[in-house]
Amino acid sequence: MLIPSLQIYLLVGAVLFTTGLLCMVTKRNAIGVLMGVELILTASNINFVAFSRYGKLGLDGQLVSLFVIVLAAGEAAIALAIAMNFYNNFETIDVDRASNLKG
Amino acid sequence: MLTTESLHHYWHTLTGPGGDLRLFMPQFVLCLTIVLILLLRTFSDHINAKPFAFIGTVIGLLFALWNWMSASISHEPVNHELFGGMLVHDMFSIYMTVFLLAFAMATVVLTMLTGMPDTEDSADFTTLLLGSVVGMTLMASANTILMIFLAVEMASIPSYAMAGFLKARRASSEAALKFVVFGGASAGVMLYGLSLLAGMYGTIHLPTLAHEMLYQMTVTEEAFNPTLLLALVCFVVGIGFKLSAFPFHFWCPDVFEGAPAEVAGFLSVASKAAAIALLARFSLTLVGTYHHAPFEPEVWQAAIHAVGNYLSPVLAVMGAVTCTFGNLAAFGQTNVKRLLAYSTIAHAGYMMLALATLTVVGAKAVLFYLIVYFFMNLGAFAVVAFVRNVSGSEDLDAFSGLIHRAPVVTVAMSVFLLSLMGLPPLAGFVGKFQIFAVLYETGWYSLLVIGGLNTVISLFYYVNLMRVMIMTDAPDQAPIISLPNAGFATILAAIVIYLGILWNAPEQWSQIASTSLTRPERAVTHMEAPAADLVVEASPDKTGN
């Protein structure tokens, strides 16, 4: 049985971070890339909360993660609006098709 | 317990003389302007919001200048922490606030002249612009990890929308998508690095964190801490993206080409200035020297040196590669905004070179460079916008024979380009000279050589643009750039020439601002006391795990 400890939570955070990075690098769909970004933000949130529970960070860590959750929502709203606009112009959200600008 | 008296006392500390809210007035005025514009919008779709934005930025700028005046005549060094340590109010943050508000004002004036977002969209555009500026001023005065992340996001998110402001243009929507995807990714990576830093040293308060870092380095005598390196690399990824430093630069040319020239100019100066200010604040806080050192000064110095060894090489290599890459890639660009984007990348590289020395003189050179950069780069982007308005194109061809159509604007543009190049009688030379002088004084001869070579490389593409403007024949149709637009460019060019000759005053301001970056007495603060109480409540043994 796993005993909850700082290391376990940090491990979960690190796995989420790596998953998010891989997701951003491999996904060609803009929504997929944005999901990778959300995973990375969640990884940081888990770190902050874990440090505030087991480390010296105190409530500051939880405060930071609350703000990050709100900001992630705001960022997702803007990103989805931009993805919609991109779809209206290109009829796809494949980021590889975004290749008009080059040089 | 909250009593009426304590509330009164709290209210007084916020709003009384020297209170937090009074010092925060510049940003507060901008926030009020945003709310006002949004309210006006609900009444009518056809209200032109640009005059309101202009008045708002002017009032904010006056408050910021008032802060600067009152801080420079005070006998004690100004160094307050605002809102429980979240922000710091010192000469550096006031300097950057004045700078950013002045630039916001200039951008609003430019959009009034070019009419880029038409009246119907002006409310949206000014709201985004002012919101972004508030975020940037917070970046320059952030004092905790939370504020760093909030400010970076607050500055970035409106700029994503501004990059895609021309909704029906394919290039614009593509630029916005690239910007938001890479921007979100790099901000996330930066936050992960910051979470590791906060966890390792048990605080989100930057000066306390720096103190704790030096303390632990001294106690453990570790030669190398991989977690610290990972955390700092993650942070540099986030800042490198904002600065468009080398491996994270690729969004910059695309966004500048796709976005309107006014937005590109704003991102090129304000966004870079805020990012470089945050980098300067962060890195110089980490290597700042503190009075309350619990060890011998030599031991303490060794720890500071060790922290510097993590940061300095990363910044030096990144800066050198960034300015070389920017200058090489700018050569052969056919779109002028794209060319200026690579020039922006190169200039961010020069500023990083000065910061890599991790000294106050380096920060001073950067702050001076920012003033110079303000006028020459805004001028260049303004001329691009003017030419776009009359010819409908931003390609190099649209500039051919410009001297026959608009001689004044051509001369002004030549002044901006020569200044960006760094030729002697102009402001750009003084800025570059200060950076190179710092590199020489601190013994970074390799960086000095790289910087010098880069200046030579940059000659080619700037001169090429001038050649197209002056030496080629004009196309048949010859639209004329209007008088106010030419006047705007002329004023900026005059300032660039003026700063190239009489640069004492801005040099003094940057001197005053940079010295407040390393302030010893801020090491241990009231932030620690509440944090210690909270640890007891949140500790695992109490809850029986």
From TrEMBL, chain A:
Transmembrane segments: 6-25, 32-51, 63-87
Key words of the record: Cell membrane, Membrane, NAD, Oxidoreductase, Quinone, Translocase, Transmembrane, Transmembrane helix, Transport, Ubiquinone
Catalytic activity: a quinone + NADH + 5 H(+)(in) = a quinol + NAD(+) + 4 H(+)(out)
Cell compartment(s), UniProt: Cell membrane; Membrane
UniProt membrane topology term: Multi-pass membrane protein
Domain of life of the organism encoding this protein: Bacteria
EC number: 7.1.1.-
GO molecular function, one term: quinone binding
Family designation: Belongs to the complex I subunit 4L family.
Subunit structure: NDH-1 is composed of 14 different subunits. Subunits NuoA, H, J, K, L, M, N constitute the membrane sector of the complex.
Name of protein: NADH-quinone oxidoreductase subunit K
Organism: Kolteria novifilia
From TrEMBL, chain B:
Keywords, comma-separated and alphabetical: Cell membrane, Membrane, NAD, Oxidoreductase, Quinone, Translocase, Transmembrane, Transmembrane helix, Transport, Ubiquinone
Cellular component, GO annotation: endomembrane system; plasma membrane
Single Gene Ontology BP annotation: ATP synthesis coupled electron transport
Molecular function in Gene Ontology: NADH dehydrogenase (quinone) (non-electrogenic) activity; NADH dehydrogenase (ubiquinone) activity; quinone binding
Domain NADH:quinone oxidoreductase/Mrp antiporter transmembrane residues, every copy: 142-286, 306-458
Reactions performed catalytically: a quinone + NADH + 5 H(+)(in) = a quinol + NAD(+) + 4 H(+)(out)
Family: Belongs to the complex I subunit 2 family.
NCBIfam families named among the record's database cross-references: NDH_I_N
Protein known as: NADH-quinone oxidoreductase subunit N
Organism of this sequence: Kolteria novifilia
Lineage: Bacteria, Pseudomonadati, Planctomycetota, Planctomycetia, Kolteriales
